[in-house]
Amino acid sequence: MARLMMLVLLVVGLTTWNTEGARIRRQSKSWTSGRNACVKGVNNAIIDGTRSLDRCRRHCEVQTGFFCSSIEYHARSFRCVISEASSFTHGLEEPCNDFGWTFSEISGGVFPPYAAALPCFNC
């Protein structure tokens, strides 16, 4: 029974649903290595109780309310901050003046999929 529960939790953790309610599996993304840096003032969501840097990255990957690009993780307080900001869109404070924060972002300069599809109003 315990193994079945673990399997269900694993599948649910790697699964999301599309707009029609059909279950789809999300691909894990490539991340930059963690470094002592931070983006000030762009915190879209804060998740307390996050026990690892990898779990914080996963919170970002499964976020559906905004296009998450980066995370800042504080290991001592188990705080995960996820953000649409990246080193490409906002300046990094490196090293971060707030002690204990680790910054990581989805590698490859990923931008929201809708960015290229914005209409041209002055064309």
Automatic annotation (TrEMBL):
Gene3D superfamilies, alphabetized: Hepatocyte Growth Factor (3.50.4.10)
Ranges for domain Apple: 35-89
Keywords: Signal
Coiled coil: none
A Pfam family this chain is assigned to: PAN_1
Signal peptide feature range: 1-21
UniProt keyword annotation of Mitochondrion present: no
InterPro entries referenced in this protein's UniProt entry, alphabetically: Pan_app
Superkingdom, natural source: Eukaryota
Protein's recorded name: Apple domain-containing protein
